[in-house]
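Researcher: Here's the sequence for the chain we discussed earlier.
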Amino acid sequence: MRKALLVCTLLTFSWASQAQCAMCKAAAQSDLEGGAGAADGLNGGILYLMVFPYLLMGGVGYLWYRQRSQKGDASEV
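Model: Thanks. This is the structure I predict for it:
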């Protein structure tokens, strides 16, 4: 069961990673050939958008850890 779930998950993510906006890809490729102005901005935008999910996950993880450690301190008394 776990192997089947793992295979399905990997296949789903491999298909999603190949899906790209054709216009963005074409613009970035043509700009790279011409001097790399907009491609740098496109890459910066992708990194900017990628940071926020990680910050949210880190914040939730920190709050969860802090809550768990406070419960542990209260039960030791």
